[in-house]
Amino acid sequence: MAMTRIELHMATAALLVGSLLAIQAVHAAEAPAVAATASVDSEVQVLKDEVLDLNRELFLLEEELLFPANTQVAVFVSMDVGDFFDLDSVQLRIDDKPVSNYLYTKREVKALLRGGVHRIYLGNLKTGEHELTAVFTGQGPHERDYRRGATLKVEKGIGAKFVELRISDRESKQQPEFLVKEWE
Amino acid sequence: MRTQLLAMLCTASLLPALAVAGDAVLPGKPAPDFALKDTAGENQRLADWRGEVVLLSFWAEWCGRCSDQLDQLEQIRKEYAGRGVRVVAVNIDGPATAARAAAARSGLTVLHDADQAVARQYALSNLPLTVLVDPHGTVRHVHEKYRGGDAALYDEELAALLQE
């Protein structure tokens, strides 16, 4: 059923692109007046927007197919403050199998500090209990190399599961804090 | 000397295995994104250089042609300085010594792929492997090995990309 929808969307997108090209060709041949050109421009813009919308829908459908809600697991990284920790990389293991090892550039760390959230992993897991381990590396207080792990046991049910790896500062101890928590 | 020979044999014997690990990098396809440490220890990501033409070259210390090519790449870097071209040399040796030395004697961006994970992504089978990536992140030209005169070809291709 979903494949049929994708095919339908692709056919519509192809039709729209075809119409777009046809409109452009016809109008180019007629050497249109200024008003007509403006009208064609707006039509082309509308068609382009529709193609973009269809692309977006196609992307969502593809994601639904590859990562169905009943098995989907997504893991996100976020950072708060970051005075005591300069993030270098995050290594993620699920059930002791490495699934992601991500190096963060200065630009990416800046984006995280501005409130950005990075999806480090998207995959499928069977229902049941799973162990998720994240290892954070970077520089801690006094520019010392810092490596810290955090583990969470997650119970994968029928719905999609979202997990956040949160790096924040613990002011009282002047140390970074690493939390792994599930989104409700 | 023996250690160097051993390192050369080890890396050379790995090359066919690397070739089967990833899909071949083809012109017209998106360049596989990666992040590696540079010789100063900073993480660098290919996607961060969108908007620039990137000349990417994979090399190893034991590969004689690679050092000839590095000298030419440095010339190209100087020639295209300030014109939206980034020349990146990815060293695939285990130890970082050769990468550090290359960075010290040139202005090239030298990255170190110690576990050859990126080399696998790029299906490396011959050294040097040179990949030209356009400002949209698409592979435009791929060259394996290095012969005298290839630098002129890179120069031509870079100039054409900059004119687009």
The first-to-last residue Cα distance of chain B is 47 Å
Percent range of helical residues of chain A:
25-40%
Instruction: Give me the strand/helix succession of chain A.
Output: HHEEEHEEEEE
How many E strands of chain A? 8
Global Rg of chain A: 24 Å
Number of domains of chain A: 2
> What fraction of residues of chain A sit in β-strands?
35-45%
Radius of gyration of chain B over all CA atoms, rounded: 15 Å
Placed side by side, the strands forming the largest sheet of chain A appear as 4-1-7-8
Strand percent estimate of chain B: 15-25%
* CATH-assigned homologous superfamily of chain B: Glutaredoxin
Question: Kindly state the mean pLDDT of chain B as a whole number?
Answer: 87
Largest beta-sheet characterization of chain B: 7 strands, mixed
Residue windows where pLDDT falls under 50 for at least 5 positions of chain A? none
CATH architectural name of the largest domain in chain A: Sandwich
List keywords for this structure.
heterodimer, A: 184 residues, alpha+beta, Immunoglobulin-like, 2 domains, four-stranded mixed beta sheet, B: 164 residues, alpha/beta, Glutaredoxin, seven-stranded mixed beta sheet, 5 helices, 7 strands, 39% helix, globular
